[in-house]
């Protein structure tokens, strides 16, 4: 059983039942609490009016319902991207994003929350603002889930009574940190996002993005919830990838690709490969041919990203003409792909940028 002042969002349904029993209450109260937290998006125990008052008081004094405090927020000029900097209970900071895709109200509308899973990141990718900040600690499941709830509560207010539209349709684990390096907490949060008593998000609406931790990809393939897998590739040769994504020295492309094939075969989920294009580094037509050869035969999709501009002089986004030539080569080679435009450039929406600026200002 969890101890006092723990966060209720850290508890699985079973653990919550144990907790309410320890307060002398019947186990079914746990589902009532989950309904308030995940369906009604309650932010206090006072709101849970069908719980007896003494139980509400015991809950309020025994366990917390929130771990995050929003301390900075940016909204892009087109209103489609939001970025929030949160302070955690121990004073550390993380950032999360919200992106709107498709026309509002249309069937193609996607309301996507991008969550962080670690404070900083231990992987240290050469082009990434978070990677340059070092690693501080893993997030716990409640801190991951609450990032989603924050945007749900906020969107819910904006959307008023339009119940046909869900305030959040997709969750991507693509914020600060390497999700598969914090496997247990990430998986517990996914189980709650997916469960009927939780947010009831479909497995297809949840994407884990990884730089390629091979044993964890293999473990993910054996799980009972088949989430979408996105692999941050960025290079199709070991020589170049060792430079951009240093974990490649431990899990080279041959091993990584074998794990991706296994993921597809076991789950039926088509892996996505993220490829950020940097000027003069990985963006030539030759690089595109190399990528097509690496992926040949695998049912997959490539997201090409014209990288977010950072302060780095080395990693500059590729010019549009170069990006289009790269994309054409991929398409001509029969590789399914999409060109993603960087969203929220005006609010530094790239991973870790808002936090970097906040840290620098202090
Ligand atoms: S790109 Fe992802 S894995 Fe690499 S340093 Fe940044 S946050 Fe970590």
For this entry, give a set of tags.
11 helices, DNA polymerase, domain 1, 14 strands, 2 domains, disordered N terminus, two-stranded parallel ribbon, TIM Barrel, 35% helix, alpha/beta
Structural write-up:
The chain has two domains: 6-64, DNA polymerase, domain 1 (Orthogonal Bundle); 69-361, Aldolase class I (TIM Barrel). It is 35% helix and 19% strand. It has helices at residues 13-22, 29-39, 53-62, 141-159, 183-194, 214-221, 238-244, 253-267, 285-295, 320-332, 353-361, and strands at residues 6-7, 63-64, 69-75, 81-87, 93-101, 110-114, 118-120, 135-138, 170-173, 206-210, 228-232, 272-277, 301-306, 337-340. It has a ten-stranded mixed sheet, with helices on one face. α1 (13-22) crosses α2 and α9 runs parallel beside α10. The protein is globular, with a radius of gyration of 21 Å. The two termini are 39 Å apart. Iron/sulfur cluster (SF4) binds at residues 121, 123-125, 128, 130-131, 176-178, 211, 232, 351. Iron/sulfur cluster is lined by residues 121, 123-125, 128, 130-131, 176-178, 211, 232, 351.
């Amino acid at each position: 059983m969890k101890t006092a002042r723990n966060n209720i969002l850290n508890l699985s349904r079973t653990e919550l039942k144990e907790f309410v029993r320890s307060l002398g209450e019947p186990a079914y109260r746990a589902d009532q609490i989950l309904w308030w937290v995940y369906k009604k998006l309650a932010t206090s125990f006072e709101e849970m009016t069908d719980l007896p008052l003494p139980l509400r008081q015991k809950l309020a004094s025994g366990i917390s319902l929130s771990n995050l405090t929003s301390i900075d927020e940016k909204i892009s000029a087109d209103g489609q991207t939001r970025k929030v900097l949160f302070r955690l209970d121990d004073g550390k900071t993380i950032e999360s994003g919200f992106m709107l895709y498709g026309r509002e109200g249309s069937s193609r509308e996607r309301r996507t929350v991008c969550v962080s899973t670690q404070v900083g990141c231990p992987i240290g990718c050469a082009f990434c603002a978070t990677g340059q900040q070092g690693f501080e600690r893993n997030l716990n499941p409640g801190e991951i889930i609450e990032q989603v709830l924050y945007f749900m509560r906020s969107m819910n207010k904006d959307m008023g009574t339009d119940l046909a539209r869900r305030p959040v349709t997709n969750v991507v684990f693509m914020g600060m940190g390497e999700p598969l390096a914090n496997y247990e907490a990430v998986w517990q949060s996914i189980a709650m996002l997916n469960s009927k008593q939780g947010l009831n998000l479909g497995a297809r609406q949840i994407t884990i993005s990884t730089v390629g931790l091979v044993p964890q990809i293999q473990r993910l393939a054996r799980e009972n919830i088949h989430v979408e897998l996105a692999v941050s590739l960025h290079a199709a040769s070991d020589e170049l990838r060792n430079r951009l994504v240093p974990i490649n020295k431990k899990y080279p492309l041959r091993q990584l690709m074998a794990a991706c094939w296994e993921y597809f075969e076991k789950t039926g989920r088509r892996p996505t490969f993220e490829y950020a294009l940097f000027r003069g580094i990985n963006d030539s037509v030759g690089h595109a041919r190399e990528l097509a050869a690496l992926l040949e035969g695998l049912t997959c999709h490539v997201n090409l990203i014209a990288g977010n501009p950072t302060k780095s002089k080395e990693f500059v986004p590729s010019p549009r003409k170069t990006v289009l030539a790269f994309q054409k080569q991929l398409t001509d080679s029969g590789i399914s792909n999409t060109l993603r435009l960087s969203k929220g450039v005006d609010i530094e929406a790239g991973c870790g940028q808002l936090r970097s600026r906040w840290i620098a200002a202090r």
